[in-house]
């Protein structure tokens, strides 16, 4: 990866069509790598999640032609909430296969075109419309059911969920691209409006209008374009059954740092864990040579559509054992070392998760989200947070290797990519 | 739309309901100087979108016929015996074609939630309870509504529930719902 750009995420951008929002992120990325001439781009991959939000079929080509990337190759990639992560990997595939030397991966979503509750209906159409949607299709309801089971199985608490919200909103305070920058307490999160028990308004990400662009190149080309390219050293993609009621109750897929005896009585994945996330993580770890993610990673940008799914994902990514996600956040491990959260955190900063503020605070313009994570991770590894955010508050001292994680449905598609300092 | 919230939000966060009604405009004034156009506010219009689909339940149709006859029909793999509470005609474990079987009408709450909001179509029904039901001898769970309890404090994981059926079938999965049976 040689460059990236993100539009400022906002609740609504009536001033611009999706093409112009994409162009903002693309221009930013192009300006950050001045040696790259537009003519040297070999092709592109585009992602957006929902034709319902866009109300325009083949919107991908309209963004592509707006960027002046015709008649070069392009295709649309789509996979629910993981759309952006899949797009990032499709761009990587185009370069890794040798088909392209320079590939632009960009994504967008314009969710403000319908009221919030209509938007929730559209999102719920990404559940089985014969058996799930008509029962009361509502993604927050699905995730609430999952976390209630997680709490029952492992003793996770609502206060632990709230800590994730406090962390991500506070991190976003230093990120000018974020949609919501708020200083909160655990009590604020719990006293917020209940949406689907036990998840409150502040446990859940918001809808956004936004776009993100990543420019990927092969190693030789990358070093001609920038002195500080970031290398993609591992990719993994996992899947699971659309209806979460159909998930098996079998044996845990073990990470290298786990053993069978750790999980004698645990039925897996059930509805408390994401088998797709574990699968994607293990593939990416294997490819990148990671056996102890907690020690070998410097930071993570993961798909926190819900505070609960961030905790579930700590476990899928083997940062801690299944069931210990709540304790992991309570100890302070995923918090930023340099930020004051107004809480006692004994193990603060072990492995910062969502330094950017994540989906909960940055917003979740679905097709852009996974690419946004890649851009924020890219800047973090480059050490260029100060340049791009206008302040260095969120720059980690050591950020040589990061992980990005994009997640769809009730855990149906999950992508994990490992990014490392390339110079 | 009435919103039933268990907590009372602070006064400063209260706002009037966003409406989808508006005013019909037939023309927009334009400045003589075209250079001023880049400072123009965006024009936002309302676009209705309504479609009636001819939607077939296909090979899953017997499930809905079952509901209208007071039966819960799932499927079972003839080879590996894996049993699905929500039917699928191909076994996801071994790929074989499955057969229709009747599944029990009583089970236990595997997990639950109470939805105070929802997709627009279901907002008028809030708050409602969603549950995943587990049945003895069935390998997968079943998504349904739980009727009866007032709030989430009245529901617990492991609680016994039994199926009830709408008298006038709507040919939707909500033709069956569950009530506490303990």
Folded structure, characterized:
The complex is a heterodimer of chains A (423) and B (182). The model of chain A has no long low-confidence stretch (mean pLDDT 97). In chain A, the strands form four sheets. A five-stranded mixed β-sheet of chain A has the order 1-7-4-2-3, with helices on both faces. In chain A, strands 8-13-12-11 form a four-stranded mixed β-sheet. In chain A, strands 5-6 form a two-stranded antiparallel sheet. Chain A is of the alpha/beta class. In chain A, helix 1 packs across helix 3, helix 4 packs across helix 16 and helix 8 crosses helix 13. Chain A is 37% helix and 16% strand. Chain B has a domain of 121 residues. The mean pLDDT of chain B is 92.
Radius of gyration of chain B: 24 Å
The share of residues in extended strands of chain A comes to: 15-25%
Greatest interface and its participating residue counts: A-B, 46 and 50 residues
From the N-terminal CA to the C-terminal CA of chain A, the straight-line distance is 12 Å
Strand arrangement within the widest β-sheet of chain B reads 6-5-4-7-8
Q: What ranges of chain B have pLDDT less than 50 throughout 5 or more consecutive residues?
A: none
Q: Mean pLDDT score of chain B, rounded?
A: 92
Rg for CA atoms of chain A: 20 Å
């Amino acid at each position: 990866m040689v460059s990236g750009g993100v539009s400022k995420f906002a609740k609504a951008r009536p001033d611009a069509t999706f093409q112009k929002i994409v162009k903002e992120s693309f221009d930013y990325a192009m300006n950050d790598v001045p040696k790259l001439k537009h003519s040297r781009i070999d092709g592109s991959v585009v992602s957006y999640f929902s034709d319902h939000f866009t109300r325009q079929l083949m919107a991908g080509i309209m963004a592509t032609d707006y960027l002046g990337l015709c008649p070069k190759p392009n295709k649309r990639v789509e996979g629910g909430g993981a759309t952006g992560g899949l797009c990032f990997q499709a761009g990587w595939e185009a370069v890794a296969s040798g088909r392209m030397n320079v590939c632009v991966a960009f994504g967008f979503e314009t969710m403000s075109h319908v009221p919030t509750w209509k938007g929730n209906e559209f999102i719920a159409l990404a559940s089985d419309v014969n058996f799930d949607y008509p029962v009361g299709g509502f993604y927050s309801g699905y995730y609430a059911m999952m976390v209630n089971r997680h709490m029952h199985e492992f003793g996770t608490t609502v206060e632990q969920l709230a800590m994730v919200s406090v962390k991500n909103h506070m991190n976003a305070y230093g990120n000018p691209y974020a949609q919501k920058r708020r200083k909160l307490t655990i009590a604020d999160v719990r006293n917020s409006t209940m949406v689907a028990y036990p998840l409150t308004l502040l446990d859940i990400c918001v809808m956004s209008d936004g776009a993100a662009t990543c420019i990927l190149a092969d190693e030789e080309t990358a070093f001609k374009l920038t002195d500080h390219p970031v290398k993609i050293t591992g990719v993994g993609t996992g899947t699971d059954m659309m209806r979460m009621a159909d998930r098996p109750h079998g044996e845990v897929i073990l990470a290298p740092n786990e053993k069978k005896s750790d999980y004698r009585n645990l039925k897996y994945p059930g509805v408390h864990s994401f088998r797709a996330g574990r699968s994607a993580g293990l593939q990416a770890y294997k490819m990148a040579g990671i056996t102890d993610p907690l020690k070998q990673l410097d930071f993570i940008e993961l798909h926190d559509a819900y505070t609960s799914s961030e905790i579930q994902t700590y476990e899928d990514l083997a940062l801690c054992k299944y069931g210990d996600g709540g304790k992991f956040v309570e100890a302070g491990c995923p918090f930023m070392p340099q930020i004051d959260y107004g809480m006692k955190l004994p193990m603060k900063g072990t492995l910062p998760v969502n330094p950017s503020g994540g989906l909960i605070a940055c917003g979740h313009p679905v097709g852009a989200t996974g690419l946004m994570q890649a851009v924020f991770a890219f800047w973090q590894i480059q050490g260029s947070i100060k340049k791009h955010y206008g302040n260095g508050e969120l720059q980690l001292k050591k950020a040589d290797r990061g992980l990005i994680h994009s997640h769809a449905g009730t855990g149906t598609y999950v992508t994990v990519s490992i990014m490392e300092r390339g110079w | 739309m009435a919103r039933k919230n268990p907590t009372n939000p602070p006064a400063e966060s209260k706002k009037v309901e966003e409406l989808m009604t508006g005013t019909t405009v037939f023309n927009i004034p334009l400045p003589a100087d075209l250079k001023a156009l880049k400072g123009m506010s965006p024009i936002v219009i309302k676009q209705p979108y309504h479609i009636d689909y001819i939607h077939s339940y296909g090979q899953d149709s017997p499930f809905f016929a079952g509901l209208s006859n007071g039966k819960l029909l799932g499927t079972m793999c003839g080879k590996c015996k894996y049993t699905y509470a929500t039917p699928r005609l191909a076994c996801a474990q071994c790929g074989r074609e499955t057969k229709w079987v009747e599944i029990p009408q009583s089970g236990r709450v595997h997990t639950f939630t109470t939805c105070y909001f929802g997709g627009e179509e279901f907002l008028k029904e809030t708050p409602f309870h969603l549950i995943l039901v587990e049945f003895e001898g069935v390998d997968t769970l079943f998504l349904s509504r739980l009727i009866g309890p007032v709030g989430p404090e009245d529901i617990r994981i492991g609680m016994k529930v039994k199926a009830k059926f709408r008298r006038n079938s709507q040919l939707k999965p909500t033709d069956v719902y569950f009530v506490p049976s303990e």
